[in-house]
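dude i think i finally got it to work??
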Amino acid sequence: MVTEWPLDHIGIAVTSIEEARPLYERVTGAPGGPTLELPEQGVNVAFFGGIELLEPRGPESSLARFFDSRGPGLHHMAFRVPDIAAELTRLEAAGVRLVDREPRIGAAGHPIAFLHPSAAGGVLVELVEVPVEPNPRFGVPSG
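look at this
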């Protein structure tokens, strides 16, 4: 069992990645990654170091509904876990409300799953299955 989940990235909801790109490139001091299309999730994403920008692909996407209720801004915090299926089982048994009971594949090709915002004080939490190691983007120690 992981006692400390290292931070993997922060997701920021934006109306347009291309409009937001110059600011995040100035803030991070480096060019962002390419815009990736994820039609199955209804979003496009681009990574800027430890920041993931997400834009809705259409008015029916869950991100578009997020905009309707909250507007642009913090969308989620993602944490690395070594075994996502085991974490989902453990969290559900502990009474944590899940968005995903089964992992799906995320933008970077890793299994991901979300915890419901009601489980984390209104913050959407993403679990990302990757070996738990220090994340050089944040210098977070492994658990």
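Residues 17-28 form the longest helix (12 residues).
im so relieved honestly
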